[in-house]
Amino acid sequence: MENKESLRTVAVSVIIPVYNVADWLDECMESVVNQTFSDFEVLLIDDGSTDISGKMCDEWAERDSRIRVIHKKNEGLSAARNDGIMAARGEYVVFLDSDDWWNLHFLEKLYCAAKSHQADMAECDIWRVNSLTGKTTCRKVAGVIGKENTLMEQLKYGHTAIWKCLIKRSLFIDHSLRFSNCHSPARPIYPLLLCLSKGWTYVQEPLYYYRLYREGSLSAIPRKETTTEGIQACEILINDIRKHGLDELFDDVLQQMIIVNLSDLSAAFFTQRQSERFTTLMSEYRKFITENFSEYHDRSYLTVGGYNLDRILSSMNLLHDPSGRFNFSSLISIMHSVEAKVVFRHKNRYRQMMLEREMNNQFWRLMEERKPDFVVLDFIEERFDMVAYQGGYLTRSDAFEGCENKPEAGDVILRDSDECMELWKESALAFIERMERDYPDTDIVLVKNYLAEKKGDIYSQEYFAELDEIRKINGILEQYYSFFRKHCKKVKVVEASKCQYYFTDKEYEYGVMPSHLNELVNREIAKMVEECVGI
Fold this sequence. Notes:
By secondary structure, the protein is α/β, with parallel strands linked by helices. The strands form 5 sheets. Strands 1, 2, 3, 4, 5, 6, 7, 10 and 11 form a 9-stranded mixed sheet that branches. It has a 5-stranded parallel sheet with strand order 13-12-14-18-21, sandwiched between helices. A 3-stranded antiparallel sheet has the order 16-15-17, with no helix packed on it. It starts with a helix and ends with a helix.
């Protein structure tokens, strides 16, 4: 029988679905019961665990009167969360994954932020903890380089994970909102909560620790592959928008939201699917967008350049297909393919795929197969030296240097040498000639990106320590851009480096380096590319 203490109304109900997490549950619970904020209850939803997790839940309830346990048959994460919502007695609810944990001030800071701003929702930044490497990185969830997102920006670009949010329980009850049993169930419900709330606030501090790649997690378990991952969530979102009469509010942003969501998923699935199955998945994504948005006109394109160029193009109002990317490569290698075939081994699956694309010179094969509407280039990857190999050249990129079975290469051609400059010019002319001859209907867009000289946020920036080397490389890149622009009649040029916030995000989670910019300027450059190609 529940005691009277457990029946009283509390400020916050903490809902924790539990399924076979015996190795991590204690760490999670320690971070909860020791919070600096104490007016809460904990609902441990044992979702039919087959290890000792259910017993551990009962033991925690015996130790702390704020904890209640619900044992149920296994129905999945969404059903467990929904059961928690119905059983909760708090004014607010939060959802904590049982293999994650909190900063000890998590509840205090989110609850105080919600109350002080009279907000129905509050959320915070997160720490992403890589279980394989032990590396911890900060992920900003509702802003870029110190600038908070507007509501419309948050709907389009915001991090949709529900576990870093404090949410008024009445939003779920009054609007009959529940988590759906689909791939990525937070994607359809998060934007609805944002728009139905009477206020939303953001704590710019990482207070949630999210464990990546832990053995046995939902994200680590291979899912049964289908051609609808992500589509069901989008269908639910569209239907719920209509159901709640939010069509007018969402009118300008819904298409962009769907495109961003499916582009994000395609980037994740690109390294997980075999080529044919991935192609089928992308075809289904295109079909879904076209059928639901009559004004959408699909355009195909290939990308040759740095990873940051991919980030730029994924911000366009166009489905971004990562199978059209060529990173860690150069015009020299594209025009001087090697004669050998090597199966690369790299600890990073994406980099391995890009190395194999360069080795097998797949650019021209894809050009012939797809005959894309446009090709987008920047020359950031042209900063690397070249190596002679098997009758051709390979780009001595970061990916190449990190390869576990790096091929025995011949002569190294230094990027700042006269020999490399002549080789690059010859390659650029050959590339231009072939594009104009064989693909006259394909536009060429040249995005003039350089290595950023500064890192920072909107309030302040500082120069990179290696400024002299950066400027030396940028001088070479400037010669390349000028040469290409002079000799390519059909090129459309985007002056990216003239944008206001052209610097590296000092807190970019994948590495603060000059070849990366920040998402605010990436979005601005994306609009410039859209204008160039008529999107």
